Amino acid sequence: MIRDDIKAAQIAAMKARDTVTVNATRLIQAAIKNRDIELRTASSTPDDDVTVTEVLQKMIKQRRESIELYEKGGRQELADAEKAEVAVIERFLPAQMSDADAALAIDAIATEFGATSVKDMGRVMAALKERHAGQLDMSKASALVKARLG
Questions:
Q1: Whether residue 85 is found in the same domain as residue 18
Q2: Structural domain span for residue 144
């Protein structure tokens, strides 16, 4: 499980006195804990690794937006700190699908549902998220699905 990998990495980083990794893993665990609290009242809970992967992807997206803003504002030291956190967070994500593999998966799902127009995008995205949630960035997938159906 990804949670166990994060905890093990945090312990190893503490022993090695790697402050960047320790701080990043603490942030990750806090975000996961917040997500767990949100899911307490949910009627159905997704698989644990899927939940953790969603949290990690959201954290990376937030940090990339911050990096962009820091670089525009001339705060390179803050952008570098965010880049270091992104590198730590990415270590825990499962391997991402290549664009070619993603296109094949989208084609298979679109063919399965008989999707031919952008009106069918919701069904295709739902199936894609259900089957490949941890392996695919959904924002990229959305653009690929729109291109396939449009």
A1: yes
A2: 99-149
pLDDT digits (tens, 9 = 90+) for 85-101: 999 999 998 887 888 88
Total domains in the chain come to 2
What HEC string does the chain produce?
A: CHHHHHHHHHHHHHHHCCHHHHHHHHHHHHHHHHHHHHHCCCCCCCCHHHHHHHHHHHHHHHHHHHHHHHHHCCCHHHHHHHHHHHHHHHCCCCCCCCHHHHHHHHHHHHHHHCCCCHHHHHHHHHHHHHHHHHHCCHHHHHHHHHHHHC
> Of the candidates 15, 102, 95, which has an alpha carbon nearest to the alpha carbon of residue 53?
95
User: What is d(CA 21, CA 16) in angstroms, rounded to the nearest whole number?
Assistant: 10
The domain boundary residue, chosen from 57, 90, 123: 90
Q: 105 near 132, Cβ under 8 Å?
A: yes
Q: What is the pLDDT of residues 46-75, one digit of tens each?
A: 778 888 988 998 999 999 999 999 999 999
Tell me, yes or no, if the pTM score tops 0.85. Answer: no
Long-range contacts of range 35-42, CB-CB < 8 Å, 24 or more positions apart? none
